[in-house]
TrEMBL record:
Annotated catalysed reactions: (R)-pantoate + beta-alanine + ATP = (R)-pantothenate + AMP + diphosphate + H(+)
Highest taxon of source: Eukaryota
EC number(s) per entry: 6.3.2.1
Organism in which the protein naturally occurs: Cercophora samala
Name of the molecule in the record: Pantoate--beta-alanine ligase
Length: 418
């Protein structure tokens, strides 16, 4: 007898891989699974931030290709079982057996520069799902032309180390349903196969726009921001096909946009919102952009949160009128601005208030009176300007301390019915 063709050997290996956890499936299902596995087009993608990683060249139905990677084409993070997936075909190959096994998959989308806020979302996802996918992708569509895309912190090694450490903690904690199973770290070419259409308002390309909620507040100041958010989230949801997705409350308008996206496009995804994680010392909301602040501006960055807290206090004392609630917040910000203006350039912190909002929790539309049965959202944004005159040896922050936009919010909870 002649030995089987190389194509048959590769196909058989793929069938064994995709059916490792589904050995009780009927032959008809195995045939479908193996055909999907071997029909993916060849591709290899070079990493943007991490070291070069060669993804497996997938065999097509008419030809066979060799691979320099491991047998299943899925790399792993160092010293961990976490898969590193860099292409859509690789992720779908990983995803298929979990779908057939009825194992829930959660997605935690990030742009890297991970901090305790991200990790808390991953912990929550691991408690509630069998598998957690963390995406790390700095989406250029979320940045305006004049924004900080080039200087956005890229901390791949640190991010990987945090994920590996967290996964070990999850493994030791018997309260979790699952662990971190995969990191999806695509290139822009992978996410925008037709070519990235650009960041201009009138760019041509395939976009998802959620209006009017995406046009208010942050959307008014950053007109392409939520278009970029909705577009990349639609892509990620379609690629990963998670049962649940996890976002932080700090980006409260973003959570409203994502909920509307899922509802209006009838996507079978549950949106889970985790609480805002804050610095235990002064309450500043954790953000990847905080690294830009440096010591001096970091000390004043809490002004927005302090203003929102003051407004919340008025609401809790029974006030429902917009003018009174926001008046307290605006007065506090103006007092701080006057205080800073009396300092010399080597001491003062300069910032600009963009907005403080009191909005409907479902639409982000501004309201004049808070409905006690519904509550509301207090939110705001400030722009921390660069240090005017640096002191000798002063730490100005990442990339020399450029202007930093900070956002924050507080949920005004509805009153409980007696």
């Amino acid at each position: 007898m002649h030995p089987p063709p190389r194509c048959a050997v590769v196909a058989a290996a793929l069938i064994r891989h995709t059916t490792t956890t589904t050995t009780l499936l009927r032959p008809a299902i195995l045939k479908t699974t193996s055909r999907a596995a071997v029909s993916l087009p060849p591709r290899s993608v070079q990493a943007a931030s991490p070291p070069r990683l060669q993804s497996r060249t997938m065999a097509s139905s008419s030809s066979c290709s060799s691979s320099r990677g491991n047998a299943n084409g899925l790399s792993k993070l160092p010293s961990s079982p976490i898969r590193l997936l860099r292409t859509v075909p690789a992720l779908r190959l990983w995803r298929r057996p979990h779908l057939l096994d009825h194992r829930t998959v959660a997605l935690v989308p990030t742009m890297g520069a991970l901090h305790a806020g991200h990790l808390s979302l991953i912990r929550q996802a691991a408690r509630e799902n069998h598998h957690v996918v963390v995406s790390i992708y700095v989406n250029p569509a979320q940045f305006g032309i004049a924004e900080d895309l080039d200087s956005y912190p890229k901390t791949w090694d640190s991010d990987v180390a945090q994920l590996v450490k967290l996964d070990r903690e999850l493994a030791d904690d018997g309260q979790n349903l699952g662990r971190i199973s995969a990191v999806f770290a695509p290139t822009t070419q992978e996410m925008y196969p037709g070519g990235f259409p650009g960041q201009e308002i009138d760019s041509k390309g395939s976009f998802v726009t959620i209006t009017p909620v995406g046009e208010r507040l942050e959307g008014r100041t950053r007109p392409t921001f939520f278009r970029g958010v909705a577009t990349v989230c639609m892509k990620l949801f379609n690629i990963v096909q998670p049962e649940r997705v996890y976002f932080g409350q700090k980006d409260v308008q973003q959570t409203v946009v994502i909920k509307r996206l899922v509802r209006d496009f009838a996507m079978p995804v549950e949106v889970v919102i985790g609480r805002t994680e804050r610095d235990p010392g002064d309450g500043l909301a954790l953000s990847s952009r905080n690294v830009y602040l440096g010591e001096r501006r970091r000390g004043r960055a809490t002004v927005l949160y302090e203003a929102l807290r003051a407004a919340e206090g008025v609401y809790k004392r029974g006030e429902r009128r917009r003018g009174v609630i926001l008046g307290v917040a605006n007065m506090l910000v103006q007092d701080v601005l006057r205080e800073e203006s009396r300092k010399g350039p080597e001491e003062r912190v300069r910032f600009e208030l963009d907005y403080i909002s009191l909005a409907d929790p479902d639409t982000m539309e501004e309201i004049e009176v808070v409905d006690p049965a519904k509550g509301g959202i207090l939110s705001g944004a400030i722009k921390m300007l660069p240090v005017e005159k640096a002191r000798e040896g002063e730490d100005l922050g990442h990339s020399g301390g450029p202007a930093v936009r900070l956002i924050d919010n507080i949920i005004l909870e509805p009153e409980e019915k007696n």
